[in-house]
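User: You have something folded?
Assistant:
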Amino acid sequence: MGVDENGNDGSAPTKALATRSEEDTAALRADPRAFEPADIRQAQWIAAQLARSGLVAKALTNKPEAIFGVIVLGRELGLTVWQSLRSIYVVDGRATMSAALIVGLCLSRRDVCAYLSPVETTAERCTYAAKRVGGPEARFSFSLADAARAGLTGKDVWQKYPAAMLLARAGTMAARAMFPDLASGLYDPSEIELEERDVTPRPAEGEAKTESAALSTIKRKLASAQMPAPQTPAAKTTPAAKTTPAAKTTPAPQTTPAPTEEEIP
């Protein structure tokens, strides 16, 4: 192989590619997150590939923009792409995450979170103990009675796995209360559903009947006390025209009867 005027023997591109490949391989071995996007353009490309991969949730299938949003949110929380896609859910256009992830994010900050762990977990109640570094311990409980008041126990998942659901609710409650700087604005999907539901207290069955009877009585009283509808004044009648008296008829002249033969002299 000849050498050009610059002293290159034609193998420079091959050497450069080999060097680049070695660098990439070394980076992969040193950093298990080497496939993470390095900039927005790479994140958008990954989102476009995953949107049609069939490996993401139905809410994200064929929605590269939504996947990109999940990746961005996960990056802010220190998650990899797949950690974000496994733990962040989209519910009615809002990004939520699993209770385990919320608790895990707090535990990962040992400079803030001394501990956050359950001390009681049954099918009736769950209690978490939490402590900030340099602060006192606090405990937070969520019971099946609390779930019933919130209208949660009617769901199939609560009936099948009450202990697991109580564990999740108590954990997120303790995380947001003790570590708002880490967990503020982070919600489990079930908490978002409850927030958007109408939770106005309703009267018990007996109270509802009493209220209904009282409402009927009030309606009857209002109906009987209604003011009469304003009467429209009758239109003035035009007096009938005076009739002209009939003209007096002149009596017919009396005719003298003709004399009979006997009356003629």
Summary: The beta strands are 88-91, 94-97, 113-121, 125-132, 137-143. The radius of gyration is 47 Å.
